[in-house]
Design goal:
single chain, mainly alpha, 2 strands, 72% helix, elongated
Length: 163
Amino acid sequence: MFERFGDLPLHVLVIHAAVLVLPVSALTAIVFALVPRWRWLLRWPVLLLGLGSLALAFVAKESGEAFVAAVPTLQKAVELHQERGDLLFWFCLIFAVVAVAAFLLLGGPSALASGKGAKEGRGGPLGLVTSVAMVVIGVLVIYQTVRTGDAGAKAVWDGQLPK
């Protein structure tokens, strides 16, 4: 199911989306956590991007495993990339859970004259913990996306590019 899309390995297509969507999702979530006056605008995008990031990380992980199963000679070359991708999936799972919590718990004013989009949130310690968790897991998702992509690129391109 996760091996091919047409004539191409699915993993090759999915990773390009992951490299773009995961950091954008994390940055959006960090802004959502740190800038209460923008929460009315970012509430739904953070929820959808958080859940979408989890789905994308899952498909990337599964398609990568299917790719290696189809070409077993790659196993040794992509070992580090695979380990980092597994960790990235778990970070994305935590990110999705925190995004749902932030969607439900964090409130903020609306910039609209009608006030539409404003949400009363849970302030105090629970709101603070949710905001801090969103920033921390957002930074971890960005960091791990870069590390995973770097390991994958090195596995594919090391020694093949002219100096």
